[in-house]
From TrEMBL:
This is Trans-resveratrol di-O-methyltransferase-like. It comes from Zingiber officinale. It holds the Pfam family Dimerisation. The active site is at H275 (proton acceptor). One of its GO terms (biological process) is methylation. Residues 28-115 form the O-methyltransferase dimerisation domain. Residues 138-358 form the O-methyltransferase C-terminal domain. Keywords: Methyltransferase, S-adenosyl-L-methionine, Transferase. GO terms for molecular function: O-methyltransferase activity; protein dimerization activity; S-adenosylmethionine-dependent methyltransferase activity.
Length: 376
């Protein structure tokens, strides 16, 4: 009965104690959601999935502790970390037959994405995205909103330069960031080649991956379509690692100044080519892409792999499926390290038109991302 008492006013509605308790719990859930990210980071740093993968499943807690060199004094803390990671769906737990307590196994998610010997290993991406260099600027997001000097991003406000400038001066960040991007790119390259490889790439004589990082996608395309000459175009400190690569040509430069000539230009946002930038910058990049390719009749196209925001409303007007939440998180994420954003189909179209393109197609065939092809 007590929980039904009206105890406060929200707008012109009375709030019950039960509602207040639910709201309080919800607030706590949001406050501590970052613990999920940090628990995942800890799992990647410790290599928990590797140990379970290597030593058989399910692996008793005591064996896991020994293999990870975690002392018995930390056993209870580690068990609690694993309990959260089990709840997140990254591991499963069962009772060990030898009465040692829990035993842990991989789930499809950790088996696919956290085992470092596998092609789809996303651990470098986890570590790059959750590195203090990337996370620290979030502490000054509110200062950035009201900053009188209007720095382009919270990252610029915190570090005094942009992400790509800092990566050019800091070799550790450069290597970690590029490895993180390459990890995601290698999974996405597989997805792209399987889902639309033939339709998109067959018959192309040449192709440039603009902002192509350390060349993971371009290399995968070059290997699948050996008749296509593939190049990676990126900033000098990024393509330096590709010099002498027999599969793809490395071209250093600034996409705001020019894009090298080719039949097709790829812009793949692993996290960030067009979605790294504001609308005006996207138009500048795309105008340079247009200059680099022939018209549609001669096979020219810009191939873009980006997210297309589609916010589905539930019946009650709320939006809470995981894909929607991921899109919303990414959209806000894009304002902290770079001056970017996620865009709806209508927002994409207006950028393509402003850059002088007359045709486009959207294919939502790549999970979180869509294949977008644009022509003139
Ligand atoms: C988020 S990463 C994406 C890398 C790669 N496309 C992938 O999906 O893994 C963005 C890339 O854009 C590159 N970049 C940033 N500014 C650039 C510029 N002005 N000209 C060329 N490349 C640039 C960065 O160096 C980085 O490799």
């Amino acid at each position: 009965m007590g929980s039904m008492n009206k105890i406060g006013i929200r707008g012109d509605q009375e709030v019950t104690m039960a509602e207040l308790m639910r709201g309080h719990g919800h607030l706590w859930n949001i406050i501590f959601s970052y613990v999920n990210s940090m628990a995942l980071k800890c799992a990647a740093e410790l290599g928990i999935a590797d140990v379970i993968h290597r030593h058989g499943q399910p692996l008793p807690l005591s064996v896991l502790l020994t293999k990870l060199s975690i002392p018995p004094s930390r056993a209870d803390s580690f068990r609690r970390l694993m309990r959260l990671l089990v709840h997140s769906g990254l591991f499963s737990s069962s009772t060990a037959s030898d009465e040692e307590g829990e035993a842990y196994a991989l789930t499809p998610n950790s088996a696919s994405f956290l085992v470092t010997s596998k092609a789809e290993n996303m651990s470098p991406f986890v570590l790059a995205m959750l590195d203090p260099v990337m996370v620290d600027p979030w502490h000054c997001l509110s200062r950035w909103f009201v900053a009188a000097s209007e720095p382009p991003t919270a990252f610029d406000l915190f570090h005094g330069k942009s992400l790509f400038e800092l990566a050019g001066n800091n070799s550790e960040l450069n290597v970690n960031f590029n490895s993180g991007m390459a990890a995601d790119a290698s999974f996405v390259a597989k997805l792209i080649l399987q889902q639309c490889g033939d339709d998109v790439f067959r018959g192309l004589r040449s192709l440039v991956d603009v902002g192509g990082g350390s060349g993971t996608l371009a290399t995968a395309i070059a290997e699948a379509f050996p008749q296509t000459k593939c190049a990676v175009f990126d900033l000098p400190h990024v393509v330096a690692s590709l010099q002498g690569n027999p599969t793809v040509t490395a071209i250093a430069g600034d996409m705001f100044e020019f894009v090298p000539l080719a039949d097709a230009v790829i812009l793949k946002a692993c996290n960030w080519i067009l979605h790294d930038w504001n609308d005006e910058d996207c138009v500048r990049i795309l105008r340079n892409c247009k200059k680099a390719i022939p018209p549609k009749e001669e096979g020219g196209k810009v191939i873009i792999f980006e997210m297309v925001m589609k916010l589905e409303n539930e019946e009650d007007g709320s939006i809470h499926d995981e894909t929607t939440e991921t899109q919303l998180l990414l959209d806000v994420h894009m304002m902290a390290p770079v001056p970017g954003k996620e865009r709806s189909e209508a927002e994409w179209k207006s950028i393509f038109i402003a850059a002088g393109f007359s045709g486009y197609s959207f294919s939502p065939i790549l999970g979180l991302r869509s294949l977008i092809q644009i022509f003139y």
